[in-house]
Amino acid sequence: MVQHPSFKVAAAHVSPVFLDLERTVEKTCSLIREASENGAELIVFPETYIPAFPVWLSLQAPIHNHDYFRRLAAGTIRCPGLEIAQIAQTARSCGVFVSVGFNEGTDASVGCIWNSNVLIGDDGRVMCHHRKIVPTFYEKLVWAPGDGGGLQVSETRIGRLGMLICGENTNPLARYTLIAQGEQVHFATYPPIWPTHSPENAGSYDLKQAIQIRAGAHSFEGKLFTIVASAFLDKAAWDELASLNSEAGGVLEASPRGVSLVTGPGGLPVSEIVQNEECLLYADIDLSACVEPKQIHDVAGGYNRFDIFRLTVDRSARRPITFSSAHEGVELKSDEEIDK
Q1: How many domains does the chain have?
Q2: Which CATH number covers residue 71?
Q3: What is the CA radius of gyration of the chain?
């Protein structure tokens, strides 16, 4: 008989210690322990939680942001690496699944940064390492495009877990890729705020509304649970960013902050919606609720036409260089044999 687990989850609607790698990792581990003590078996952290989301990109011209780029690059981590190992050890000791966003660096380049997310199992094992496929709008100024290597659903004792980062949750092909792997619990991670216009101009991006639309749509289409974790902009970060120029504070004030929530298979929230306070948001999930809705719309099964539609996904990880030998597989001859 198929078992459908029930468990408690935590969405970390929290701020990093702004651009402080060591203290943010310490805070991450502390929050994992807190979530575990409160009965959560899974905790989801926001987009590039370690060590910050680069909000400054929206507040001043690129020519003024070089120092921030250097600070962000200095706060990148590797996967695998010491910081991931520290978080994994905490996850293992607490018996908790952990999804955390971070700025990822590479030994191949001192200035290449990816917007990355990792799922760590309750045994401390890295189960999925995902790099955001396409940075959005001004994010392209700091992050390199990712690849399809992390577009996978992880089979766990609490269900099939998948993740997408921020605007990827707008990509129907990326979302379907996870749904078609039997995804049951989806992580959607976001920044604390995402300014797009000056306050005096109409059309500012409503991050709160955009998040709720995307979370509801994915849950409804996939008949699954979506855990949304948006970051929080604390006073220290707010004050630093607001002081960048005479307009920065007004832009921050006029831009809606991100929200954290959990949506169920019907597409509606099954938790509180938090926005203006830093907290761990808890919700109870019962995966048996995903079964009956599949009878109505199952886009990974009977409510699709696989004879009409076909999707191919390249999940190979991209690397900057591939080495090969010109003599590989060739029998080498001695100088004497060549002379003959």
Answers
A1: 1
A2: 3.60.110.10
A3: 22
